[in-house]
Amino acid sequence: MALNVSPNWISAIESPFRNQGYLRFSIEVVPPGMREGATAFSSDTSPLADVSRVIDGKFADFRDIATCEHNRWVLGGTAEVLEAIDSLIDGTNWWDNQLEHSQDYYSRIVFTFAEIYEIPGMYCVWDTLHGSWPTKLVVTGYDANDEIIQTYLVTSIAQPSQFIETPFSGVKKIEMRIEGWSNPGWRAWCSEIVFGVYLNFTEDDVYKARTHSTVSVTSEELPIHTAEISLGNFTGEFDPLLIHGYSKYFKAKQKASWQWGFKLPSGVIEWADSQTYFLSDVVIPANESTFTVSMGSRLDFLNSEYRKGTFTNTARTFGDIAREILNNSDLLKGTTDEIPYEISETLDTLVTRAPIPVMNTNELLQCIASATGTILTINPTNGYIAIKDLVFPERSERTIGQEQQLGDPGIEIREELHSINISVYSYNVEDSATSLFDGQYVLSGQEQIQVNYPTAVDPVATVTGGTLNSAQYFANCAILTITPTTPGVAVSVSVSGKKVISSKTFFETYTNTQIERGLDVEIDNPFITEYSQLAALTTYLRNFYEKRQQISMKYTGYPELMSGDAISAPNKYGTANGDLIEHTIDFNGGWTGTAVVQASD
Amino acid sequence: MALENMIPCVTDRTQDDVLRAKELNAKGWENMTEAERTEWLNGLKGAYNVSDLNRVGHNVACLAEVLADLGHIVSVSPKTDWTAEDIPTQAQMATYLNNVKALKDGFYGTIDLPETMDKLTVEGANNIERLLCEIEQNIRNLIEAWFYCGELYCGELG
């Protein structure tokens, strides 16, 4: 899906003489998981407001509510009069319930975290509607033993949103006391608190940058959505030892945004939609004046083995299964209620009777896409995982003309498609229960353990030498909470259940009778159980494999293009029309690109 | 209560006053000059304050009482104790406007009131008090035209 840009951009970017490019890049230097696991509490909250909204990650604007605080109800025609004032309303974020703020009469918000964290400070968004902020803020950090780590008196805030430098190490709880407000007699308002800092860079800081994306139409490989940027470190601001400054707070999975800009012939700089990435690595060489940030997608971090599948021996839609997997996975979320994936409606029309096999979560999604004739990809703007139909509304159709191509393209011709063979699985449950797992655990007290076993139904755990407090059973594992009778003495755990057995049969769903030999495609996917779905899948596969040309070319680079877009590439042998399956953009003030297009003859 | 007890109405608010209110609010107390602080403390015309609400309430009460003395009984229930802690509700603001409307309906006035206090503009705020001024003036005219029975003779006013 191409980034959203104007027709003027497209026309100018395809021109042989182009203006310079721009890049804005920012990193949310926030410990991954800190916000999602945090709670906010304030006994000073107005009944209209909800303090938890300050950590919801939404940066929502305030609703303009008519109140009697001095000069706050501005006659601009936007202030709403509320129907009632005794219950929570939408869009208030946080208000306190007092008009005076002083050392003796402050309001307070307390944030408690699931774990201990290290932060450089907090990015705070206050009353952006009227433009007001705390003039005196006392920030205290507490460790896991509720001991004070450090207290900061912040009197430097001068605008409604600003980073405040309050570094804490090993912080489990932060208390924020508002002891002064920029307009006297006003309630304090807060929209959002981010436990970290936004580092912003522009093209002036960028030494070189690269984005790379791939998509596998048949889901043979995981899609790639990566970026790498080398940034100036001329003053040594970013410490190679990761001890001082912001660099010590860099962590994998931190969110980054990347936004291309392009000066149009009119002189106006147009900015494309920003793209979302997640930090995978930061390399700060001691002997160089640049450092490099590497980033990937949510899918890259979805690489833990998924065992929480269930098996009902009934038909379930792939959409249902994909959502179950994603909802139970450790998918990166900005907020607890964020749903960072997009599933094609096609998946809700196709079914399987298969248990969810044990494999990495991202590979499971790949299997689902493969079984349903859809593509697994990344929505570049929000970074959401997407399972889409190949032809989707946002798909761009563009031409990389010979004028834009740098040198002759490389052309590879794949063997002609000879046959397609697809396996169909069937699953049955054994009549009687057998042992699935036997093992021993030495537990020091009540603990939660996970035991893994082959796919089964009706599993039951038995514990000897301890008490089974609770059990959660899945098709391939059980999560058991056990208290040992004698701490430190081994507890025996056994699980029995009815094993699920499978068999598969290959069906030749397509044969090209015109040729004797050629490309024989074999699809072996444990999710495929329905014969009725073979025809559509075969058509989808034929459409791809009958595009035999693979065109690789260097060109002037359209930074808004993404893998999965439709490309027409005229060359001296004809015009190749097909799918952009790999795309790289290099930037050093201007762009160059490398494109791989799978095209029909 | 006599008309002399009326608090002077504010009817000259402009869009510039709104911009000024936004500007000073966003500037913050510590960044204001002494003159700006005084201006802010006195209540900005581009904002609707407790002083506006209470003034309107007071003037409604005053006019209703004068009209009652003149034999025009108008039922109003003005609130004159608004404080900065208050957050007005739709019901309260409906009563607020209905009081002014009752004066208009029970006596005479021509100026249109805003239909609601929701999303109030300078024009709406001005019109509320313009109407009160108009009613006040109409009462004054009535009083000035009032003669004792038998005081006038044919052709005397002509």
Number of helices, counting only DSSP H or I runs of 4 residues or more of chain B: 5
Report the end-to-end length of chain A measured between terminal Cα atoms: 24 Å
Number of domains of chain A: 4
- Run of helices and strands of chain B: HHHHH
Report on the structure:
The complex is a heterodimer of chains A (601) and B (158). Chain A is mainly β. Chain A has 4 domains: 1-28 and 201-396, no CATH class; 39-195, Sandwich (Jelly Rolls), CATH 2.60.120.260; 397-424 and 504-599, no CATH class; 428-503. Chain A is 7% helix and 44% strand. Chain A contains 4 helices and 39 strands. In chain A, the strands form 9 sheets. In chain A, strands 1, 12, 13, 14, 15, 16, 17, 18, 26, 27, 36, 37, 38 and 39 form a 14-stranded mixed beta sheet that branches. In chain A, strand 17 and strand 18 form a beta hairpin. Chain B has 158 residues and is mainly alpha-helical. In chain B, 51% of the residues lie in helices and 0% in strands. In chain B, helix 3 (50-69) packs parallel to helix 4, helix 3 (50-69) runs parallel beside helix 5 and helix 4 (90-106) runs parallel beside helix 5 (122-144). The radius of gyration of chain B is 19 Å and the shape is elongated. Chain B starts with 14 loop residues before the first helix and ends in a 14-residue tail after the last helix. Chain B has one domain. Chain B contains 5 helices and no strands. The A-B interface holds A 48, 65-85, 99, 130-133, 135, 158, 160, 182-185 and B 13, 17-18, 21-22, 24-31, 40-41, 43-44, 46-50, 53, 82-90, 93, 116-122, 124-125.
